[in-house]
Amino acid sequence: xxxxxxxxxxxxxxxxxxxxxxxxxxxxxxxxxxxxxxxxxxxxxxxxxxxxxxxxxxxxxxxxxxxxxxxxxxxxxxxxxxxxxxxxxxxxxxxxxxxxxxxxxxxxxxxxxxxxxxxxxxxxxxxxxxxxxxxxxxxxxxxxxxxxxxxxxxxxxxxxxxxxxxxxxxxxxxxxxxxxxxxxxxxxxxxxxxxxxxxxxxxxxxxxxxxxxxxxxxxxxxxxxxxxxxxxxxxxxxxxxxxxxxxxxxxxxxxxxxxxxxxxxxxxxxxxxxxxxxxxxxxxxxxxxxxxxxxxxxxxxxxxx
Amino acid sequence: xxxxxxxxxxxxxxxxxxxxxxxxxxxxxxxxxxxxxxxxxxxxxxxxxxxxxxxxxxxxxxxxxxxxxxxxxxxxxxxxxxxxxxxxxxxxxxxxxxxxxxxxxxxxxxxxxxxxxxxxxxxxxxxxxxxxxxxxxxxxxxxxxxxxxxxxxxxxxxxxxxxxxxxxxxxxxxxxxxxxxxxxxxxxxxxxxxxxxxxxxxxxxxxxxxxxxxxxxxxxxxxxxxxxxxxxxxxxxxxxxxxxxxxxxxxxxxxxxxxxxxxxxxxxxxxxxxxxxxxxxxxxxxxxxxxxxxxxxxxxxxxxxxxxxxxxxxxxxxxxxxxxxxxxxxxxxxxxxxxxxxxxxxx
Amino acid sequence: xxxxxxxxxxxxxxxxxxxxxxxxxxxxxxxxxxxxxxxxxxxxxxxxxxxxxxxxxxxxxxxxxxxxxxxxxxxxxxxxxxxxxxxxxxxxxxxxxxxxxxxxxxxxxxxxxxxxxxxxxxxxxxxxxxxxxxxxxxxxxxxxxxxxxxxxxxxxxxxxxxxxxxxxxxxxxxxxxxxxxxxxxxxxxxxxxxxxxxxxxxxxxxxxxxxxxxxxxxxxxxxxxxxxxxxxxxxxxxxxxxxxxxxxxxxxxxxxxxxxxxxxxxxxxxxxxxxxx
Lengths: 305, 347, 277
Hints:
The structure holds three protein chains of three kinds.
Chain A: H1 12-24, H2 37-66, H3 70-79, H4 81-114, H5 120-132, H6 135-146, H7 153-158, H8 167-177, H9 181-193, H10 196-203, H11 208-237, H12 240-246, H13 256-265, H14 269-301
Helix pairs in contact in A: 1-14, 2-14, 3-14, 4-8, 4-9, 4-11, 4-13, 6-8, 6-12, 8-12, 9-11, 10-11, 11-14, 13-14
Chain B: E1 3-12, E2 15-25, E3 30-34, H1 41-49, E4 60-63, E5 66-67, E6 78-81, H2 93-102, H3 112-125, H4 141-153, E7 159-163, H5 171-188, E8 191-196, H6 199-205, E9 208-213, E10 216-221, H7 223-228, H8 233-238, E11 243-245, H9 249-252, E12 264-267, E13 272-276, E14 284-292, E15 297-304, E16 310-316, H10 317-323, E17 330-335, E18 339-341
Parallel strand pairs in B: 3-8, 3-9, 6-7, 7-8
Antiparallel strand pairs in B: 1-2, 1-4, 4-5, 9-10, 11-12, 12-18, 13-17, 14-15, 14-17, 15-16
Helix pairs in contact in B: 2-3, 2-4, 3-4
Chain C: H1 14-41, H2 45-53, H3 55-88, H4 94-100, H5 103-106, H6 109-120, H7 127-130, H8 141-166, H9 169-177, H10 182-211, H11 214-220, H12 230-239, H13 243-271
Helix pairs in contact in C: 1-13, 3-8, 3-10, 6-8, 6-11, 8-10, 8-11, 9-10, 10-13, 12-13
């Protein structure tokens, strides 16, 4: 009775789980259907060159530039109170945005993967919408609502509340751009896992919540973790959307990416790259965790029983 | 506890899974719901378990006279074993079996010692002691099946419901396990319903067989009854091999009374007697095309002389040798036992 | 399937989960997005045209769409090679390279922006070689193109990988047994199979590139009429308090994005056309 799922963007887990399952047993096709050796060498070299030149070089540049004037200058960049404030704000934003979208992702996955209802594929597509929206527009729409001239502008001003050019606006815009991450990890996962175990728990006398905590959650925990990692990486690294709503007030409404921009525009390159290097490290950690989960738990991610 | 279902209707969108099905399962009996895929048997089982609700306004389910149609599955005291076991993959065998005990409300929950005792009791019952620390993916199919059974029994159900319990197992394991199930049932005397599409399985171990087809019940009876006295062409062909003779006149030398012009004769291969052809003697002349002797009986594929239709007969190897039958021999067939039906059954 | 409420489902939590989902979705996504459309709906038609079709805006479209298209095209080509190599040729360190493919996806756009600028500016590691050749990478449309290629790469590779991995070797063996050469096999057997995925990857990369801001604004130089991408133009208008103008352009971009989303969905349906039930 598997319902027709909407056609949607394939989530990373499914894509990479497949690719990594292949890494485990190299899919070298048999000789008759393989290119000549020189072709293979050429293509491999080409691919490595491309990846190396295009992906690794920028990464290397970040760290090189950050350390250009030695470790002293590098660490000095973080002693700056504005930089620390930016780090704090980034962490705070992520600390709010990620749990919110986590709860949403779980709720959406439960509704979509466990029940049949009209409009399900429309709902799934709607959840993907923020992915299709430019970050700048993601920020703009919140300005339209909460800005001084926006729908709620006058009301907010009356009550002395500020959303745009303040932390709440940054948090909201970040929630928007990271909206789909957890949901689109969990929905296909829970669909693939099927609901037999949950039904079994019900027949054994478990209540709805008991079933969820004891049966569903343990089964989706790696998918959940995966989605959270991606969500967090994006939340901490978001630039365009936050740039629009933030107001760029040093020490107050600057996240780390915005701070990088400010430093860079002041030609304070070492400091800019130093802060950027932190973000780059975050990206590397994210990639590492992601790869690790895919490797160790690709069964859990692909819902193999 | 006896189970009754009254006029259950269930549709999924445009598909009718059950078109008004009624059932009565006496207390303590082992009953098989037998039928091909799509016949509605699993749906009926799930409705009895409370995992689906019948269509609004349609029938009722009664446990020992009490209406449980609106009672949620957790409160019906049914033990349900899923086709693919549905073991909690992140829990050990011990924890799987203990699950039902752990989720009880505080008042009813037994203490740790009592739980351990009960789990070990059950493990012994299903002959899996020693495996309590294993995870489901470390068990064989048959072992998982028994863990699922033990888990269902842990909460003292009044009724045991099994959905294609042996469907996912090898043929040999299947045979062993179903005999085990029968012995098990004889020990614990729990009212049990199991769903299967394997007629051999149903006929071998069930006290009573309910044959379903296309959302309806075709026949209910003991294995003997349904095999020897099938109520419809469907039942006839579902429970064993069958030859369908289009021209009944051939069978008895005259049209059986009550048979319409469209009537057919149904006869099982082992109810056909084969003898050397003697001109003028009663019977169906046929030519042997193939003789298959790999097996307990010899199977003959023959072609009827008059109608050119194929017909299959089963005779003992001894008779085959006595008559010294070869391919292309002309023989006479006599029907020991047959049924006639007006409708025809098409697969 | 019945309307909104399923037929009395046994699993609990439908109302709660769906209700919360719809509420959160509306609040965070639908309502704000509709604000953009509503605001634009309030504009008169001439004003709207003026806002979205003035020369500067048109120039930004040319740049954004043009560079995004080219970048996605290049990614389609190189992404195919990278995906092919990753799936079919085992080599030491493959897993590392595979993980790195996601870097543009994981790296904050601002970091990518300044890194690329540093690389391709006149004194950068790569820029210094291009300078003598008269090629200006940074602060030119070329720089925009380079940045957009960077961020679009994972989309093509990741869309292609599962499709390539699932290709049955038997198909290629059949082709060979019937006398096809390797190129013929590729062109007649493999390419048609992966074409939908290729196009999907292209569309995804294109859609992402269109809206990209952080990676591009540093390397582009942001000169109006020359290296100003559309998202930047939106921000510029916002800073000038021209909310109407900014929103109008945003609506144009949104419509294009949604059309692309639709196209991608259709492509994925198309890719399933020959699958068995």
